[in-house]
């Protein structure tokens, strides 16, 4: 194995930064792994017992974690205190604007879904109009919480397909407009972080799903559009302006169909839902028919079967390109690509194996996303909790940004 | 702009790790930026004066830097001590195995080329046979150094084209064989780190070349093969096994020429040197004719001109895909792609602009590599210096791994 190169050298640390860093590491550990004994934290975080004890005490004092005596253990010696995240007390707002619905959740520290509101999103509803309805959900949920709960932040995942009303890929400007609309609804906070659904779900699968402990992975998200959350060395490839992962607009077929983006033969035109519906002789605008085509293919309808196999060929084709470029350990299929891949896995894998470099496919696994529809909310919560882990004590003993 | 997501949380730090980290940060700063005053280091590294003073004193004591009184300055107050890397004393061995030559250099801390040996590499020479000759160069150079110099490590950059004797892309195993061959030559060290030429040059351009201060970039290297060093958020995308960046085997033309990798229509078959030579009606195996074709195109020879334009079209095509995937700030062309891009820049840019997502190309710059033929040696030196910056005091006052 070649050694990686990183010419990045993070900025130096003073005493206060180190304490902050270590508090964040401990807090994030119990957020991801759940209640953990001090003894295990000592091992996992490579810090000595007294340091762990001091850090845990600080976090207890702030109300971010609790410490309890663990149940009697069989080992000799004193029982180790268990450190648990205060999941009911510390929470974030995690929102999603999806092709056909909008959702708002309160997610507690530790990744627990505490509350959830959902509404149908009519096709014609502009993204900015969804903000008012989501803001209503947020206020409604915030109104029902106990007085001593602390809101630490908010984030919104937006489906790639909703980038702007003309159907063009989302721009930086569109994200800014969305952030501004939330800021107008919540002038005193929280500030809602905006990101792409594929990015957000990729992070969720990495933190809590099928890609736990996998540091190089590609999460492929398909519905009307196709995009990806690419994670290398444990970090999301955001790109210069956060627009990385637009794999749907990788051109794979120069003589293919025109794409809504203005190009031709984009991967999305070969593996998106419209392609499946067109190949199967269905109405390409009838999203509900996707499941029907997959069922028909499974039951042996010839045209539906051929349509699925053709999508699977192009799926393997594009994955081969990505595997050559990124050399991941794991490729995860989500959204409607989850069912499409499941139906054509053999064909897709075979095409991948015949096209990609042997050394790059030797270790690569292909898997279905594992978190289900909550993935996007859990991923958005990770974004929203980010600032808390960067500086846990900043939350203070009272809400620092209360929802109105 | 969307905020990035990183779910990576580096491991916590104890006192000793912090000191090591800060020593490394200071040392790397003067390595990259050259002699710097204590006052400027205080600002640049966000540490207080006494900490900088103590760190610098530690590095002086180890012989890694020197401190001198800077020349009289116009500002009021005491002159600040200048901290300079000991470029003559602290060095690494930087080697390259290229398509038609092998090189070995001693590179001093600060990125100074102190010594250089070079030999022609016959086409038929297996990569492993190059090791003996390079080892001879290394011993020869090491024999001429002063007694108090310190060798901190070694690295080898290998051209993608030389991956194995069958012409297939290099595997992890091939890298291990190469590392083992060096280990056999230098049983007491240094351990030679192996990496891909495109990765290494990408890092060099990022640290010292056209991509300084650009954190999201793609360095495209072309000669017989085409590969890339992809850097996102300041870090090289190595991939799971270090095989990332194989952009030459991204399929862009499903009906194109068969590729040596076993696939068809790989980007390399459209923009590699062979493609240029074939399109121009030259002998595809005559690498020397590449420069002649470019000259002829410049002088108006119709077939050569058309050949360059066709390559430029495909160059823009593939760059569009990469820009959509990675959302870089900057794409840098090197190797023979440097001259090919220069000759067809207008065509390539126009194709890129018509294909890539408008939001992703809005800010992207295309540039020629700036470091010239030494880039690969400077980049290899960065690899070799890596462990020094991770733990500067480990070098001790005497060589910890002397070359035999």
Total DSSP E strands of chain A: 13
Which structural category do the helix and sheet elements of chain A fall into? alpha/beta
Report the end-to-end length of chain A measured between terminal Cα atoms. Answer: 53 Å
Pair of chains with the largest interface and how many residues each contributes: A-B, 95 and 95 residues
Percent helix range of chain A:
40-55%
Element-level helix/strand string of chain A: HEHHEEEEEHEHEHEEEHHHHEHHEH
Task: Supply the number of helical segments of chain A.
Answer: 13
Widest beta sheet: strand line-up of chain A: 6-5-4-7-8
Percent strand of chain A: 15-25%
**Kindly state the mean pLDDT of chain A as a whole number?**
89
Low-confidence stretches of chain A: 1-8, 396-404
Shape of chain A: globular
Question: What is the quaternary state of this protein?
Answer: homodimer
**Largest sheet of chain A, described in full?**
5 strands, mixed
Any idea what the radius of gyration of chain A is? 23 Å
Textual characterization of the structure:
Chain A is of the alpha/beta class. The first copy, chain A, contains 13 helices and 13 strands. Chain A has helices at 15-33, 38-45, 49-61, 127-143, 172-185, 197-208, 267-271, 273-279, 289-298, 302-326, 336-355, 358-361, 375-390; strands at 36-37, 65-69, 81-85, 90-97, 101-108, 112-120, 150-158, 192-196, 217-222, 226-232, 235-236, 330-335, 365-368. In chain A, the strands form 3 sheets. Chain A has a 5-stranded mixed beta sheet with strand order 6-5-4-7-8, with helices on both faces. In chain A, strands 11-10-9-12-13 form a 5-stranded mixed beta sheet, sandwiched between helices. The longest helix of chain A is centred in the C-terminal third of the chain and has 25 residues, at 302-326. In chain A, 53% of the residues are buried. The model of chain A is unreliable at 1-8 and 396-404 (pLDDT under 50).
């Amino acid at each position: 194995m070649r050694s990686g190169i990183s010419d990045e050298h993070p900025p130096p640390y003073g005493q206060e930064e180190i304490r902050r860093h270590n508090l964040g590491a401990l807090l994030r550990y119990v957020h991801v792994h759940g209640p953990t004994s001090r003894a295990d934290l000592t091992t996992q975080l490579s810090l000595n017992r007294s340091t762990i004890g001091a850090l845990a005490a600080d976090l207890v004092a702030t109300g971010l974690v609790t410490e309890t005596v663990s149940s009697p253990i069989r080992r000799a010696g004193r029982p180790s205190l268990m450190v648990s995240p205060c999941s009911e007390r510390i929470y974030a707002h995690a929102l999603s604007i999806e092709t056909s619905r909008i959702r708002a959740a309160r997610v507690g520290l530790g990744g627990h879904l505490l509350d959830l509101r959902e509404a149908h999103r009519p096709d014609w509803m502009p993204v900015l109009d969804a903000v008012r309805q989501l803001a209503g959900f947020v206020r409604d949920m915030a109104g029902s919480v106990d007085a001593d709960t602390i809101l630490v932040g908010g984030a919104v995942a937006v489906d790639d397909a909703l980038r702007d009303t003309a159907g063009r890929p989302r721009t930086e400007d569109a994200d800014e407009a969305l952030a501004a609309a939330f800021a107008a609804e919540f002038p005193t906070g929280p500030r809602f972080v905006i990101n792409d659904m594929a990015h957000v779900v990729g992070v969720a699968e990495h933190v809590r799903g099928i890609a736990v402990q996998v540091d190089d992975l590609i999460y492929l998200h398909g519905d009307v559009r196709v995009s990806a959350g690419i994670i290398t060395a444990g970090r999301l490839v955001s790109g210069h302006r956060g627009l990385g992962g637009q794999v749907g607009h990788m051109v794979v077929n120069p003589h293919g169909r025109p794409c809504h983006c203005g190009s031709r033969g984009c991967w999305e035109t070969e593996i998106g839902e419209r392609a499946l519906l067109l190949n199967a002789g269905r109405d390409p605008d009838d999203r509900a028919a996707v499941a029907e085509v997959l069922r028909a293919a499974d039951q042996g309808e010839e045209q539906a079967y051929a349509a699925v196999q053709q999508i699977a060929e192009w799926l393997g084709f594009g994955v081969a390109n990505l595997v050559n470029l990124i050399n991941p350990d794991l490729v995860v299929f989500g959204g409607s690509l989850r069912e499409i891949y499941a139906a054509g896995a053999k064909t897709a894998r075979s095409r991948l194996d015949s096209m990609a470099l042997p050394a790059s496919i030797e270790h690569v696994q292909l898997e279905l996303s594992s978190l289900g529809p909550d993935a996007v909310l859990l991923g958005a919560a990770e974004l929203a909790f980010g600032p808390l882990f960067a500086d846990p004590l900043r939350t203070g003993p009272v809400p620092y940004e209360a929802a109105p």
